[in-house]
Here is the input.
Amino acid sequence: MQTLLEMRNITKTFPGVKALDNVNLKVAQGEIHALVGENGAGKSTLMKVLSGVYPQGSYDGEIHYDGQIAGFGGISDSEKLGIIIIHQELALVPLLSIAENLFVGNENAKGGIINWPETFRKTEALLKKVGLAEQPSAMVDSLGVGKQQLVEIAKALSKDVRLLILDEPTAALSESDSQALLDLLLELKEQGVTSIVISHKLNEVRRIADTITVIRDGATVSTLDAKKEPITEDRIVHDMVGRDMSARYPERERRAGDKLLEVQNWNVWHPEHATRQVIRDINFHVRAGEVVGIAGLMGAGRTELAMSLFGRSYGRNITGSVKLRGKDIDTSTVATAIRNGLAYVTEDRKELGLILEDSIQRNITLANLPDVAKSGVINEAEETKVAEQYRGAMRIRTPSVFQKVMNLSGGNQQKVVLSKWLFTGPEVLILDEPTRGIDVGAKFEIYGIINDLSAAGKGVLMISSEMPELLGMCDRVYVMNQGGFVGELSAEDASQERIMSLIVTE
Amino acid sequence: MTNSAPQDQAAKPENGIAGYLAGHLREYGLLFALIAIMVFFQIVTNGTLLKPVNITNLFLQNSYIIIMALGMLVVIVGGNIDLSVGSVMGFIGALAAVMIVNWEVPVGLTILACLVVGILIGAAQGYWVAYWKIPSFIVTLAGMLVFRGLSLWLLEGQSVGPFPKTFQLLSTGFVPDVFGVGRPNATALAVGIIAAGASVWMGLRKRARNKAYGIEDEPTAFFIARNVIVAGALLFVIYKLSTFRGLPNVLITMGILTIIYAFLTEQTTIGRRIYALGGNEKAAKLSGIPTERLTFLTFVNMGLLAALAGLIFAARLNTATPKAGFAVELDVIAAVFIGGASMSGGVGKIVGAVVGAFIMGVMNNGMSIMGIGIDYQQVIKGLVLLAAVIFDVYNKQKQG
Ligand SMILES: Nc1ncnc2c1ncn2[C@@H]1O[C@H](COP(=O)(O)OP(=O)(O)OP(=O)(O)O)[C@@H](O)[C@H]1O
Ligand SMILES: [Mg+2]
Here is the structure.
């Protein structure tokens, strides 16, 4: 098959960090090429080099595209050649319509005047192509992440894409949305679109990839041809982490103690629409040393439940009681919730979890400053010590704890958020999609941390859309649908089928 | 992962000094810009700029801007802006004048009342911004109009003055020489030597601590150069002052306030939380930070400092005029941005704001000595502000 793209000896350095070190990547015309590797391996950076986010001259090495040497001064240059990148973070304008978003910067206009009928017509055609039934005039912020992702792809299609780059497209998507997206990619492949897909979900990689390139620590480790023989996940993992990983979930002695957290008759209404009830009569508990999961589809209300518990950060007219070790506790503000032993690791680390402009150190201590301060004065030395401890324990990959969080790879940012909440010393840790965008090795580490907490008699409440993770980690799983719990399964009884059937029968 | 990443070892900046400079260009740039501007005006004004009497004037003229820049920096770091400070300052000056001159209220009581009114004004504006989430730009724009109008109304369009001596001391008074030497003023010299010594000592301490914790080190040459320049400049300025009338009261006020605010913003939990609030309000809130209360407090603080500035300004002019404080908010905001604060919040330093205010002040003063008209002065100041911000953005892009 013909080679569409070849990147040769790409080297890219940031102050203090060699993100890419002689990386090679060869992509054939018309294939789906998966790019995998641990957090911070350099996947996103490589794709930013390719798409001109990092312009020519800011890196070493050569890019051959379509048989010619290419060098891009910016994204617009690479787009001209049909290279379209969809970044790890979605880049849609929330308060514009789908149609406006699709053609922003690329408007159907004559002399600066937009031809709306044509815009809408084209939008409709594109939406059909990606399988979206939405109106072109629908606001983007009214769509779920899954649909927004499809809008991003439609936007790419509007630009005559030849090489589509997707950086972790399914990280924030539900099972069914992911399936839809993968199907779409396979369909686009039939139409001759070449894609590069970055993903930490190896089952998806196996499903769609023709070729898999593994990078580790900024260098290409292997290129696996999946067309000849199916590649096992273990093989990919081996190349990613550089050793065999036999188990995906660390062993834990399961031993639940007394009731630690108990939530009764929890009701929450929508913050803007006072008549809409978002959480309905929820009752649940978490025992000391227990890891309890909440399964459900996107939009089931899991995050809303967690945030309403955590200092009423979501919703209004909240009623119900929260007990810790049998005593009512005050969770009316985030500060009191933290003081009473709750911690909530958000699913949206960039928006809700981190101060991106600030250093790792400052982010880790933010929720528990008094512990590194004396009568309101921060002891920076102590603070650094704490940050260094977590850097070591969590294996945050960074040259120093003074690095801005903004400059970390997605997975390492997640570890910073986790560190921040562990530092508050919680009794009950609520984890919302804790391993989103995290590589297998780091997942294993995070599971290990969860197990340590449970061994120390803490409670863990884990929201996850990845069912294998819930099944592998939890002692009990609550199933949630449309704002209420529709079932509870013990570890022995739980299976993907049972969970799904509980959701569906409701 | 257990196998260590090569990045871990690549921690050391590869090209020491150049790399360090690239990372800290902004901080050094600001210092050098101030020095360059001073040298420039010293030359073109044939040495007038650094004459003792002019240095004294520089402090007297700019004190109120610097004092408000302290509060403005905090407001801007918190992610807001306050356009009303000029008007509030004028209003408080007017209030003081009316109270002292027309109503014959004792000076001490007037000062206290004015500061309280400043706090209330800040609270009134902060309330809408913090608890009602009304954009600060709009609330304080309204405040700007309201208090401009109120000062006109209070003064009935007239200037009110003069003030009694005791009130004027707030601004034009000098610290008496306790050693009785007179000229050069020994108290001033002593204060200067102590201040220079303290600044070097604190620098050394911080450096030692950083070393102990392996924090990225400033190259030794830089550290020495920076300290020699700062301590030298401090001693130089104070020596000059001592040969005139000694230390102006406002300089002491300003110095102490600067130290307090630098400490509050950099070393305390409340300061840290304000930065977090400006950096990402939602994340700060989910970290248990009382974001509303903090926003409210930044405005209360701004009101207090604007009131203090109003008193000092009125005391210096010895009258309150309806025009007092007009467009001053622009100078204050410009100083903060020149000093490296970011419009979107979360970034900026007290020292930067103070140096920024001095840059503006020296330019004002220098250009006035040169006889440049107010028209060109505005143009030049505007361009300097633009250049400073462009420099910031450029720097950021290069790093990104
Ligand atoms: N602007 C930057 N400044 C400094 N370092 C950076 C910058 N961008 C990326 N890095 C570093 O480069 C390395 C590679 O980052 P990259 O984002 O490419 O990783 P990734 O493979 O996409 O990881 P993830 O799976 O977590 O998204 C990381 O160590 C990261 O900290
Ligand atoms: Mg990435």
